Each structure stands twice: as structure tokens, then as C-alpha cells.
Amino acid sequence: MALTRVQGIFTLVLLLPGACYAAVGGSWCYVGEMCGPPTWVSLGHCAGKRQSPIDIVTANVSFNSTLGPVILSGYGDHKKLRDMSNTGITVDVDLKDGLLLTGNGLPGTYMAKTIHLHWGNGPANPGSEHCIDGKRYSMEMHIVHTRDNMSLSDAMQDPQGLAVLGFFVQASDSAKGKTAKAWESFSKNLQRIAKKGSDTDLQGAVSLQDLMGSTNLARYYRYSGSLTTPNCDEVVIWSVFADPILVPTKVVAFFPFNIRSTDSSVGPHLENNFRPTQPIHDRMVEVSFFAKPRSAAPQASQTTALILLFLGVSALGFLPV
Ligand SMILES: *[C@@H]1O[C@H](CO)[C@@H](O)[C@H](O)[C@H]1NC(C)=O
Ligand SMILES: *[C@@H]1O[C@H](CO)[C@@H](O)[C@H](O)[C@H]1NC(C)=O
Ligand SMILES: *[C@@H]1O[C@H](CO)[C@@H](O)[C@H](O)[C@H]1NC(C)=O
Ligand SMILES: [Zn+2]
Q1: Domain range for residue 158?
Q2: Distance from Cα 132 to the centre of ligand 1, integer Å
Q3: What is the pLDDT of residue 293?
Q4: Is the dihedral of CA 2, 271, 189, 163 positive or negative?
Q5: Can you point out the beta strands (E) in 42-138?
Q6: Residue 251, SS3?
Q7: What pLDDT score was predicted for residue 205?
Q8: How far apart are CA 196 and CA 4, in angstroms?
Q9: Residue with CA at minimum distance from ligand 1 atom 8
Q10: Is 24 within the bounds of a domain?
Q11: How far is the CA of 61 from the centre of ligand 1 (A)?
Q12: Does 266 fall in a domain?
């Protein structure tokens, strides 16, 4: 336990260099009675009413036709992914300046700073942070942006200081082609950063666009939330994309297999680094695309089936009675 406490303090410092926290001295972890998520309520803002992640209940989301697609610039550039590091709680990739995010509902231009991932324990134990109607996907990728190129510590002082794009990443035997190859090449680097504190230069092997694949940027959920790690600052405009990125099963297995949570190459595997979903309280989740209410769907497909049956039977030359 003592060891874990020290690691927790280190993690805070590593994650947010330069940030000033009154609450530092607390410690946290993903698994453990003394430091797991239920204990985070005593840290920073983690007991607030605008926390992330959440379970997105699609029957309760509100369609907003003015949201439109998020607009990205520079994401196809292969030279933007710099250093990939093992922080002991995630795999983090530094981004060079110039990856810009705008769109309706975002009060400014946001610049991407880092990406990182959350995962479970292999394809059978999913570990995305957000859920859709209770469904958890294999992994979740977060692209963290600050408003008007603020530093991370300045962005923590602004209720709309961060915009995070969340992408579900799903293990699939049918994942093939360019996106699958990009994830294979990206995850090969994990072998070189097994130990906490180690890093490796990605040398322009992939772009963010390569990793995002053909994700439809016009289909996402939007809500106000927080960082999903202590101090859980309530400063994030979330956009969580509806359609998962499909990746080969071995890519999903690679994360917990390679990455250790301590600086020993035989230390515990880093797994299940996701926070449980948090209460929505009085927030509304907006959705950028029109989705039929669930109750209407069976009726529509029944009608279609009847018409098809009718046409089929007519073609055979007689009518059902
Ligand atoms: C939908 O929202 C209403 C009002 O906030 C709430 O009472 C209800 O439990 C929600 N439904 C689900 C399925 O979460
Ligand atoms: C729809 O989104 C726009 C942009 O964020 C916002 O200004 C507007 O208030 C939203 N409309 C509703 C009905 O929520
Ligand atoms: C963004 O901020 C970084 C770090 O503060 C700074 O080095 C860089 O010049 C800024 N970029 C732009 C385009 O303002
Ligand atoms: Zn995250």
C-alpha cells in the first residue's frame, strides 16, 4: 500500500506538469480498496456534479441540428505525433503544435496537446470509459485539446478550457485495411515502453487521421464534463463519437500485455485503467445526428417486413388471406 501511495503522487505530477493543486498529497489508483475510484471523492473536484465519464442513455439524448460535424485541421499530418510514454496509468503521446479543432458549440479554436488511451484486460474485458446504453467498448482514445492554445494548467481554470474527443476502439475480427495497419504499427511501439517512465519517439509513423480511420465526424454526443482522473477538474467539453474504430483483436490484447504500471519490467500489468461511469445529475447530453426513438424502430421494421412479404407473395401470383 505504501508503495502504491507514492506512485499515486508521482502520477499526478507526471500527468499535469506545472499544475498547482491544493489537494496533492491524496493518492489514487484504479484497483485497490485504499485508493480505487470510490475513494477519489475526497480528491479535488471528483465529488462534483459535472463528472465524467457517463453512460450515454440514447433514449434521453437531445438532438441538436445546429451542432454539425466537428472540424479538424492538420490531423492528417504524419509529423505531429512525437513521443509515446508510459505514465504508469496510461500511454500518452505528445503532439506538436498545429492540430486544430473547431465546430458549433465550441467557444473558440482548440489545439490538440496529447492523446492517451483507456483499456480493460484484453478483448473479453472491455475498458472504454464512456458507455452507450450500458455497453462498454474494448478501449477509448482521448484527444485532449486546450482552448486558444492555453497551457494545461491555465485550461484547468476555465470551465470550457478543454475539449476532448473520445473515440471508442473495438476489437473486431473483420478489422482490415489502412486503419487496422495504422493501429498495428502504433501498438508495436508498446514493447519499447513496458516500464513506467519509459518513452519512445514515434518518428512520424502514423497520423491522428490514420488512427481515426473513417469515423464519421458528424455523429457524436456532446456534454459538459470533467477530467476522468483526479483531480477531476470540471473543465471539459466532451465530444464522444458514436461509431467505434474497429481494430484487430491482437491490438487490444497488446495494451495490457505490454504495459506495466511500475518501473519494473516484471511489475504488474497496467489494466482496467478506466473510471466507472458517474451520475449525470441535471446535465443534458446533446446528439449531433438524428436517431429514431427506440420505440418507433420495431414498428418501422415490421411494416417493412409486411411490405416485403406482400411483394414477395404477389410475385408468386397469389395474395395472403
Ligand atoms: C431519462 O431522464 C429522466 C429525466 O432526467 C430520468 O428520470 C430517467 O431516469 C432517464 N432515463 C434513463 C433510461 O436514464
Ligand atoms: C444547440 O447547439 C448550439 C451550439 O452549441 C447551442 O447554441 C444551442 O443552444 C443548442 N440548442 C439546444 C436546443 O440545446
Ligand atoms: C502554443 O503554446 C506553446 C506552449 O505554450 C507555445 O510554445 C507555442 O508557440 C504556441 N503556439 C501557437 C501557435 O501559439
Ligand atoms: Zn482519458
Answers
A1: 50-303
A2: 14
A3: 54
A4: negative
A5: 55-56, 62-63, 71-73, 81-86, 91-95, 100-102, 110-119, 131-132, 135-136
A6: helix
A7: 83
A8: 13
A9: 60
A10: no
A11: 10
A12: yes
Element (H, E) at 314: helix 296-315
Read off the C-alpha cell for 81: 505525433
Contacts of 42 (CB under 8 A, 6+ apart): 26
45 in a structural domain = no
Contact criterion met (CB below 8 Å) for 161 and 150: yes
Ligand 2: centre distance to CA 109 (Å): 18
Residue 321 lies in a domain: no
Three-state SS letters, 166-179: EEEEEECCCCCHHH
d(CA 259, CA 244): 23
Q: Are 164 and 240 in contact (CB under 8 A)?
A: no
Closest CA to 291 of 240, 237, 220, 224: 220
Tally the domains of the chain: 1
Give mean pLDDT in consecutive 10-residue pieces for the chain, a chain of 321 residues: 38 35 62 94 97 98 97 97 96 97 98 98 96 98 97 96 98 96 97 97 91 97 98 98 98 97 94 98 97 51 46 42 32
DSSP per residue over 190-220, as a string? GGGG-STT-EEE-TT---HHHHHTT--TT-E
Please, what sign has the CA dihedral across residues 16, 22, 25, 26?
A: negative
CA distances to 176, 275, 295 from 244, rounded to whole Å, are 14, 19, 24
Distance (angstroms) between ligand 4 centre and the Cα of 164 equals 8
- Pocket-forming residues, ligand 2, beta carbon under 6 Å: 64, 66-67, 104-105, 286
pLDDT for residue 170: 98
Ligand nearest to the CA of 61: 1
> Residue 223 sits in a domain of what CATH number?
3.10.200.10
Locate 265 and state its grid cell. 519490467
